[in-house]
Amino acid sequence: MPNHVLFAVSSLGLGHATRSLPIIRSFLVKGWHVSVLSHGNGLRFLRQELREHHVSFIELQDYPKLERGSGLAYFYYLVVDLFTTARLIRRERNFIRERQHQYACIISDGRYGICSTQIPSFLISHQISFIMPRGLGLFRPIVDWINSRYLRRFDMVFIPDFPEMETCLSGRLSHNRVTDKLKHNWIGVLSAYTREQDREEIDYLFIISGYLEHQRESFIGKLLEQAKRLAGTKVFVLGDTSTEEVTCLPDYNITIYPVVTGSQRNTLFNQARLIVSRSGYTTVMDLAEMDKQAVLFATPKQTEQEYLADFLGEKQWYVTGREQKHVDLPAMVEEIQQTDRFIPPWKTEKSLEIVHDEVKKHLGGNRFSLIIPAHNEEHYLEGTLNHLVSQDYPVDCYEIIVVENGSTDSTREIASSYAAIHENLSVLTCEKGVSRARNTGFAQASPDSDWIVFLDADTRLEPGFLRELDRYLGKHAADNLAIGTTALKPSDTSSAKARFWFSLYDLGHRLSRTSYGLQIVRAEVASQVAYDEQLSYAEDLDYIRQARRYGDFFFLQTDKAATSARRFEKQGYLKQTLIWWYQAMQPVSMKKGKSYLVIR
What distance in Å separates the CA atoms of residue 183 and residue 176, rounded to the nearest whole number? Predict the structure, then answer.
């Protein structure tokens, strides 16, 4: 469905939901229909934030929270949870396989199985390489290899960071050899916060959206005790979406919110002079976006947060530390004066532009002209046109041109009956000759078309063909593709022999860069070449040879294109193959003016 995007958002900490929020809102502003898939806290948070918008919500179980337990139990849970995660990723892939036809694209933040081979799929991740727990460093190459296999299933990985190591926030989590081998784009910081002209009336804002519940409660208790030692106004936001009860400790000037959403969340962040939080990556991006100073604590045994705390502390952008049994928060606050504020190369507004530009490239939106030479094709043309007018593709993005050339049956009448109903279908007439008919069709093709598809009158394209072709061309937009073809299956027989011979032809066309029944050529290349009108057979081979001077040949492996086996059934598969081989081997000069046996 055009203009329908699926956002899949991890619920392992609210950071995934908060950093996805500005992208979701930007799609809504541009008029897209949005569906959000998440679970637990993340889903509840997004429901609250997007309650004023028309958004569809889907709940699907998320992965287990890794790195839980201690001692030997830690390693036991790690192995069990990794296998559970792999199983849930397979479930996600099955889930999306059944529903992918509903969406124009997918954007996934931390949900590795929510991707599709049929529609553009993008992953948001800054953790391209994992920081391994102590004692497991030897397994990092294996873990990186497994992770990269999941990442490569996406058309593009959006990395919310900057390309230069000197001005990046994630360090070697994203700047590593694994990243270099992926299709990726550095999109910059993502933050749901926006600047307001509020005075900094809150001295300390504590944001605690913990990853592991038992550690979160302990951390909150320690910070509350430390906050009592600080002078000024203190506000806690706990990231607990299960309640709305606000608690006040007037003796210590402390206000505790279980969760805040919308304008209130934005206002509190704007009014804060200093942020105290975990060293989660989304929090780090929020600080960069809003130019805030902070004291950051790494969650124990969360290797990513521990690395970020060390990395950002060494940069002296923030005061960072590990959560110890005894925390001296007042002393850490005094260290703030020694830090240098991080100045991001760009902020969320530009990041969103980068995301939309990349999505637009992959959606393609190519315009196609489909040209069908038709000579005495009354038995096949109706079926071919039925499939073409039923394409799951915007009607104003493709046209069908039937070129009737010297028919003595009802071919023209059939084509004209379709043209009377479908505005994007037209009928032309020319003298007999397949090459002449193709040239005539191209001469009348829309100048706005990006690609020309020449297909025989007995070649049928399933309804999803143009969308699949558009997706393929979008993925290879940076390549110099000039002309290509697709796999073809028999349309009028299901015999094993027919399928076998057609598969051999597919292999032959892929290897030899040739085709029959279907040629797809870039419009600007088509304007430089033409079918030789003195050729009545093997004209497609000569045409492909000409077009390949302007770029590369491509082969689309698809199950959505089929053509008649009538020539093989009439002549015999081996005989017809030998005839075509002989014709292909002849010099062009020997083929000119020769007649071709028409089989109907």
Answer: 13
